Amino acid sequence: MVGGMTSATPKSKPRSVGYVRVSGEARLDGYGPQNQATDIRKWAKANGHQLVAIYHDDAKSGTLGPADRPGLSAVLDSLHRGDATGVIFGRLDRLARALAVQEGVLASVWALGGRAYAAAEGGEVHEDDPDDPMRTAMRQMRGVFSQLDRAQVVKRLRDGRRAKADSGRKATGAYRFGYAGEGKGRDRDAAPLDTEQVVLARILELRSFGDSYRTIAEILDAEGHRPRRAETWSAMTVRNIVAREQHQTRSA
Fold first, then answer.
1. CB 15 within 8 A of CB 88
2. Which domains does the chain have, with CATH numbers?
3. Which residues contact 36 (CB under 8 A, 6 or more apart)?
4. pTM here?
5. What does the alpha-carbon distance between residue 20 and residue 40 come to, in Å, rounded to a whole number?
6. In this predicted model, which residue has the larger pLDDT, 23 or 135?
């Protein structure tokens, strides 16, 4: 009692954890971890939430469930232990990129007594309400379009790789012996690697003389040449290099 009046008890802040996710293919995201974390912190501060921690999943697809995402598992564990009462994420597509996963994760959050907040999309993602079926439909529609957007981006990347391969340029994967990647992004392509080109020329020269693959391997070792991923040459390695070069010559 102060001056005949009861002092009010300060209202405690909601305790929340943040969640940040970027996919293995960065071009699918367009919403980086720093931007996500900034949005989460700003929203928490503006809405009076105590941000207990921010969990990250790096190089994890939004089609994966919590069991395959350590960061998301940590979020659910925090809610289960009572360390937090809610999870804040930048956008709903950071939580999931597949409708079934989205709904499953949200159901898990709600089942643990937690609340979900999309910082860059207006705030709380509310639980289903039988008196408001439109709420559920709108949330699920966002999930459907997020899933569709991911599928379209993946298709564009796949089509780009096919077009690059059809044009004769290296699309993905390791470069054959004698070559290394040069350039960035879509312009990246195979370029001769001088140190390996010398060895490649020697292999083809010896083969043109009629030497066996085993003999060529022994000569390369004796001359001090080294293969890319081993200490010594094998007949099979030499054979594969010759076969690839012959295939490239026929395809040219």
1. no
2. 15-133 (3.40.50.1390), 179-251 (no CATH)
3. 20, 21, 89, 90, 94
4. 0.54
5. 9
6. 23
